[in-house]
Specification:
The chain has about 230 residues and is α+β, with helices and mostly antiparallel strands. Helices cover about 35% and strands about 25% of the residues. The chain has one domain. It has seven helices and eight strands. The strands form two sheets. It has a four-stranded antiparallel β-sheet with strand order 1-2-3-6, covered by helices on one side. Strands 5-4-7-8 form a four-stranded antiparallel β-sheet, with no helix packed on it. The two termini are about 25 Å apart.
């Protein structure tokens, strides 16, 4: 990205990559950049967030259960049902609206497919409540060990704030950070969470101002998402 023209070309390539429009040599080039160029990774992440926000104004439509099952099989073929800490503290990942699921899935599959073939820097998931009143798209950037979250539906109740949690397989939930306001937030992963390999579980709860007074969620857990095949860079 040595010139303005180069930057514009890379930004356009990142947009086309996020939209799954690339084929052949262009796709191979983008896949290589995803594993070697942090500027390109962040450009794809930015386009992913911008495109996902388009789902905010779409009317809710409940998809058939078979749609979700097929979608999850395609996005996460290696994921096996497991008992999680979140099964004890809150609702499991719910079915989001058909339109936002389709958009999030297309973006997630584009990024996640690279991660399946080789260790990749980005992992994308959607956290949704079982009543569809709260949805968040999360992008985990393993290059920087950060997570970027954007709400596409719902918010914390008045006088409460959101808190982000994460854990590895068989481990207790750990706070990643507070999300007091705004539609998006970027949080640095704690060292223990950044070191997780295999399945990383993300969740969001609503808590009193200042966050949970304990080491676990105390308010409503809106939902969780398991991200399989996470690698430590």
């Amino acid at each position: 990205m040595s010139s303005e023209t180069d930057r514009e070309e890379m930004d356009m390539l990142a947009a086309e990559y996020a939209l799954r429009l690339l084929e052949g040599e262009d796709l191979a080039r983008a896949n290589a950049l995803m594993n070697s160029d942090q500027d390109f990774v962040r450009a794809v992440e930015g386009w992913t967030m911008r495109l996902t926000s388009l789902a905010e104004d779409l009317a809710p439509v409940d998809p058939a259960p078979s749609v979700k099952r097929a979608l999850m099989r395609r996005m996460f073929p290696a994921m096996q049902p497991t008992k999680s800490f979140w099964d004890r503290v809150g609702p499991w990942l719910g079915v989001a609206t058909a339109a936002s699921v389709a958009l999030a899935a297309a973006l997630a599959w584009q990024v996640f497919s690279v991660s399946v073939r080789s260790p990749g820097p980005l992992y994308t998931a959607e956290i949704a409540s079982d009543t569809n009143d709260f949805r968040v798209v999360a992008v985990v950037d393993k290059t920087a060990n950060e997570v970027f979250l954007t709400r596409t539906a719902g918010a914390a109740p008045e006088g409460r704030i959101l808190q982000v949690w994460a854990h590895g397989e068989g481990a207790p939930a750990q706070s990643v950070g507070l999300w007091p306001e705004g539609a998006s937030v970027r949080l640095v992963l704690p060292p223990e969470i950044a070191a997780v390999e295999g399945t990383l579980t993300l969740g969001v709860s609503e808590e009193p101002p200042g966050g949970s007074p304990t080491d676990a969620p105390t308010g409503r857990v809106f939902g969780t998402a398991d991200i399989p095949n996470v690698s430590v860079n």
